[in-house]
């Protein structure tokens, strides 16, 4: 009976009557840390809805995963209400008012070798995360903000135990953390990475969270916290001003909606490139299905075909995409069927394309974190949040406990010069005051007549290809555990190579892909940290799974 209701609900939604709730009768949270998942579930059990739970989960992640996302960063949240309306909360960082296109170049016009777009306070955009908490809580949540921040405040004040993942990422960023005394004081012990099990306390961060709980966004963006932040940042050579903080605004946007076969996918819109790139890849698949290239495709045919889709979408990302408030992105043209048919038409079944000769539109880790939440009334949240690199810029404002992001590196700091993820870009994504850097973060919802899923992952430029492969697996009916653990591969146009996890291909597949002309680049480690909640409409069952590559936890709890 239950399953029939769900099927009817889904079919109505797919038919455009998106008003019937996706009543699963299950609360579920999947996040990258057990303490965060537990805080989210607790919110659901004590009067909160999915939006309360998402805030509680994200706030704890900001404390216990200081390397991944936090109050000094930003992100994108897809919120789906009971009536199935979905809104995207754009909490992306903005470039400070004194930013300009050449700010990371030396006098010769070359990228500065000391990498100020990655390390130290010049790397940081104005954070959006505190504003997102206040905004979502005010408009969508049931519980007071203080209740949703309580677990995070307690963990910041009383401390949490350092785990292996913390140690890995702190070791990787130790050099920059040591350069900033307050970062070293909080995140290191006598200049060394603390042992597993050490209690890490962040009392200044607890105070700042209290201010936010007390006064909402103003508690962060004006008043004493803002003053202290600006003092600390400027004393260390940064350019933030009180006016930059006061001007920060959340933007509510429509998500990108993709219809492919019987699936409806909702995902991040600009200034994340994720939605546009996914729309292009699915659009090319619709224009030229794989069976037009191979009557009976095998695994290598599929890898080749999907790689070529990625290559083409990432090229348009590099050429055309940026903050839509600053750049006229030819969105309609990039999604038009004649353009996508032409792009897909250039895929050769037996040869890898050369990234340099693609047709143009002619117009113009392990760090970062994802959380997925479902409540028993069918509200859904898919949120990807970031401070960019592990420990962001490495600079902690001592007075406020805020660790600054290094999201400025997501801009094209010089046209054609790859950023930290090897992504190239041009004028569309150059640094400009007040602008949001182009992102790849792609929190996503998908509904088919058979299944519904909440999906997302960190992983820099590879986020989009991971979500793409995950969505295809959802549509193909793969089990939840297999979807998050599947070996991954990726192509991003430049560098012109298939990047892959060590175990992604069999020797025979490698041989055949190379014979097609693909360059294979084993990245030497696993990547991504996917958090998936999957509802099967036939059985009525919801499963939540955390990527085995991480230390996350996912729990699905039926509600009586
Ligand atoms: O917005 C972006 O695309 C990046 N700042 C995301 C960074 C990320 O996922 C790092 N994870 N490994």
What does this structure look like?
With 560 residues, this protein is α+β, with helices and mostly antiparallel strands. It has a domain at 4-253 and 367-429. Helices cover 36% and strands 16% of the residues. The protein is built from 19 helices and 20 strands. The chain has helices at 2-14, 34-45, 50-64, 129-140, 145-158, 164-172, 174-179, 181-187, 203-215, 218-221, 223-235, 242-247, 274-287, 299-320, 331-335, 337-345, 463-475, 480-485, 507-515, and strands at residues 26-31, 74-80, 86-91, 160-161, 199-200, 251-253, 256-260, 263-267, 369-374, 380-386, 396-397, 402-403, 444-447, 451-455, 489-490, 498-500, 520-522, 531-536, 542-546, 553-558. The strands form five sheets. The chain has a seven-stranded antiparallel β-sheet with strand order 6-3-2-10-9-1-20, covered by helices on one side. Strands 7-8-13-14-18-19 form a six-stranded antiparallel β-sheet. Helix 13 (274-287) crosses helix 16 (337-345). The longest helix is centred in the middle third of the chain and has 22 residues, at 299-320. The two termini are 16 Å apart. The structure holds 6-diazenyl-5-OXO-L-norleucine. 6-diazenyl-5-OXO-L-norleucine binds at residues 365-368, 386, 388, 407, 410, 439-441, 458-460, 463.
């Amino acid at each position: 009976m239950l399953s029939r209701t769900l099927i009817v609900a889904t079919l109505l939604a797919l038919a455009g009557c998106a008003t019937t709730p996706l009543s699963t009768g299950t609360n579920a949270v999947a996040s990258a840390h057990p303490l965060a998942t537990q805080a989210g579930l607790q919110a659901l059990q004590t009067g909160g809805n999915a939006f309360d739970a998402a805030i509680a989960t994200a706030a704890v992640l900001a404390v216990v995963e200081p390397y991944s996302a936090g109050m000094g960063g930003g992100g994108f949240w897809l919120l789906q209400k009971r009536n199935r309306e979905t809104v995207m909360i754009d909490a992306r960082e903005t470039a400070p008012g004194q930013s300009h296109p050449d700010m990371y170049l030396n006098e010769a016009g070359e990228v500065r070798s000391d990498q100020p777009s990655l390390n130290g306070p010049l790397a940081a955009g104005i954070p959006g995360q505190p504003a997102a908490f206040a905004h979502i809580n005010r408009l969508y949540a049931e519980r007071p903000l203080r209740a949703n921040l309580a677990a995070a405040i307690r963990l910041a004040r009383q401390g949490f135990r350092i785990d292996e993942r913390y140690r890995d990422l702190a070791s990787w960023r130790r050099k920059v953390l040591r350069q900033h005394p307050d970062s070293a004081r909080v995140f290191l012990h006598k200049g060394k990475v603390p042992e597993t099990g050490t209690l890490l306390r962040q009392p200044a961060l607890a105070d700042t969270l209290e201010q936010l709980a007390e006064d909402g966004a103003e508690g962060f963006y004006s008043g004493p916290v803002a003053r202290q932040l600006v003092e600390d940042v400027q004393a260390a050579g940064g350019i933030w001003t009180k006016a930059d903080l006061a001007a920060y605004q959340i933007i509510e946007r429509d998500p990108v909606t993709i219809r492919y076969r019987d699936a409806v996918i909702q995902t991040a819109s600009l200034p994340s490139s994720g939605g546009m790139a996914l729309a292009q890849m699915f659009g090319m698949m619709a224009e030229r299905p794989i069976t037009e290239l191979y009557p009976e495709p095998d695994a290598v045919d599929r890898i080749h075909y999907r790689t070529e889709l990625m290559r083409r979408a990432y090229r348009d990302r590099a050429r055309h995409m940026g903050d839509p408030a600053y750049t006229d992105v030819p969105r309609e043209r990039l999604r038009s069927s004649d353009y996508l048919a032409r792009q897909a038409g250039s895929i050769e079944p037996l040869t890898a394309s050369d990234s340099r000769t693609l047709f143009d539109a002619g117009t113009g880790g392990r760090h970062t974190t994802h959380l997925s939440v479902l409540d028993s009334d069918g509200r859904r949240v898919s949120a990807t949040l970031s401070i960019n690199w592990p420990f962001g810029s490495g600079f902690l404002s001592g007075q406020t406990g805020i660790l600054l992001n290094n999201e400025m590196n997501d801009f094209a700091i010089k046209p054609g010069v790859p950023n930290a993820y090897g992504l190239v870009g041009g004028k569309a994504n150059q640094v400009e005051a007040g602008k949001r850097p182009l992102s790849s973060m792609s929190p996503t919802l998908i509904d088919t007549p058979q299944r519904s899923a909440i999906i997302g992952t960190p992983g820099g430029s590879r986020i989009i290809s991971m979500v793409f492969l995950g969505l295809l697996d959802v549509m193909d009916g793969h089990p939840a555990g297999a979807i998050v653990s599947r070996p991954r591969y990726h192509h991003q146009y430049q560098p012109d190579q298939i990047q892959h996890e060590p175990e992604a291909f069999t020797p025979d597949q490698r041989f055949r892909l190379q014979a097609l002309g693909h360059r294979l680049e084993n990245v030497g480690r696993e990547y991504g940290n996917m958090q998936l909640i999957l509802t099967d409409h036939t059985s009525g069952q919801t499963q939540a799974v955390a990527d085995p590559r991480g230390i996350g936890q996912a729990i699905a709890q039926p509600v009586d």
